[in-house]
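An instance as discussed:

___
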Amino acid sequence: MDNWKRSLGVLLLPGIGLKRWLALAGAGVLLLVLGATLAALELTALSLEVADRLIGFGRAATLANVLPVLWRGVLFGALGLAMFGAGAFQAYRTLLSAATYRRAGGGVVENLSVRRSRRGGPAIAAIGGGTGMASLLRGLKRYTEDITAIVTAADDGGSSGRLRSDFGVSPPGDARQCLIALSDSEPLMDEVLSYRFETGEGLEGHSMGNLLLTALAQNRGDLHDALQAAARLLNIKGEVVPSTREPDLTLFAETEDAVFLHGESAIGTANKPIAHLWVEPRGALANPAALEAIARAEIIVIGPGSLYTSILPNFLIRGVSKAVEDSEVPKVFVCNVATQYGETDNFDAESHLRVFEEQAGVSVSHFLVNSRPIAVEPEFRQDPIRPANPHWFDGAFISADLVDERLPTRHDPHKLAAQLLRILRAG
């Protein structure tokens, strides 16, 4: 009984998207009955007092002086049938979408309520790439569908690097992970799009998702257009856009001992302190869709992810840093929960923030750090990062339990998203 009361209460909330179609179907039934009654009365020549009253009512309420009763019956019957069909079909679609709305995980009526709240959720721009960004999106999609994931286009390793070299397209790997994270059917999409071919000449090592995005990019024009098409194909809620539409973006770095590194894969495994980072071509312009997302965002989330190879490359594109710096909404830098072998060895929380602000030219308003470091198994060669508020940072320092207990080198998607929503609500 309590479940029925709760479901009825949710159903009565405005904006669910079901009551209007049920009302339309009900009105259609009434018109259908009226039309059938009028037609039946004329056809059978009934002269009962009740029939006379019904005909009188029908004449007053319908087109008595325009059409004969029979044709009026046909007209209103057809109109009622059409309204009933439209209302029933839309109600069916609404109920079906709620039944398959996997983000909510509850009953049909509860899912309608959750979907309503997410459609009215805040606009969020998330900047980064890789598994860190995917983890963030998995949590945020519980609260809003207005998410834009802005990902790097500088990857040159693995399947993405090979496809980039062979077809001249922007690397699809980071974008693929974000599409999976935003999918309504994430486990199935992960199984399909992350499947890697183990054999086959030219196919070995490639993931299905990378091949799909490459094919769409070849057909549509570039990775940006491919992602828009894939979002429609896979029913993605939210948007994934590359930070630039430049197809041949390359990341470069110079280490503190004056060693030059060419390419994201070399920088990520350099195991040397990085002094300077840049991209070529130097004049690569920001994707207008990325700038638009930043401009209308109610909160900008930077990270988590590989500092030098996933996060910072986005801010080396002309226009991105300025757009973020000019924004007056909360700008949250999410510190990784653990160091990354070969890229940020021996980094503490302060080092992550300092390097980001220096290299990106952006001052953030919030610094979010995990308050519960968990020891990492030695074979991962990563160290947990302990919370520490840099003495020079004049923004809001927030320390909270954000770690995934099963994977202590990563954030828990739901803990992280909930904390970000608290920051947004606090202004």
About this structure: Residues 10 and 110 are 7 Å apart (CA to CA).
